[in-house]
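User: Could you check the structure of this?
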Amino acid sequence: MKNLITRTITGVFFVVAIVVCFLRPISMTFLFALVTGMTIWEFTGLVNDRRPAVTVNRFIATVAGVYFYFAMFYYCSDIYSGNKSAVFIPYLITIIYLIVAELYAKQKDPINNWAYTMLSQMYIALPFSLLNALAFNATEDGETVYNMYLPLSTFVGLWINDTGAYCVGSLIGRHKLFPRISPGKSWEGSIGGGVLVLAVAFLVGWYGSDTWQLAVLSPAEWMGLGLVIVVFGTWGDLVESLFKRTLGVKDSGNILPGHGGMLDRFDSSLLAIPAAVVYLYTLTLL
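Assistant: Sure, the predicted structure tokens are below.
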């Protein structure tokens, strides 16, 4: 009972923090820059602890990921004047340094050092940074405007999917979705969560047609986005479960009472965010 209360309180604060941060672009930027840094720090710490021959430079990898997030914010929001692409130069220099440094570090396993270092950037820094591509939309007259609903909808869709999958799976779940990696997930639960997301997405598109931030997508396009979030969010959850099983850990951390670590909390979004960006760019909306 105590663990349930702790988990509930943490979950409520988590949801409120995410929703409130999207009300203003600056609050979104600083919260997810912090989330990016904490998640990379957690990821590289796990790798260094559970892979004795691997040594990832946690500090530089974390700083690089956070800088990349800020660079994407400047690039997508049009705040940076002049040559916008130049903002990525320090990040590229840092990546080159992390690669070349292995020539002189004399570590036991430089190949895996490179691999895990780059994975921290591609698996964590890049997806979180793409929130900026969702949040800042170009209008027909060439202006860039902030739309909180597109990045927020990704997280809301994931929460609805998780809730629906848990409820349906608990009631009628019989067939395991991926028993080798996540024995608790069932096909019935996954389908139930997906149907609930599609229903909510349709309602958002139908009743949000009078609000320009929601009217950027038709009801069918909102349902398409919901389907993308469901499928790739589920894969994101499974990918993180495979990562933990490979390293032999139950939770990625303990920073969130009752919920584990940062990776445990954001695992689904790490694939859902880039998939949502691809989907929306395919619709030529961003």
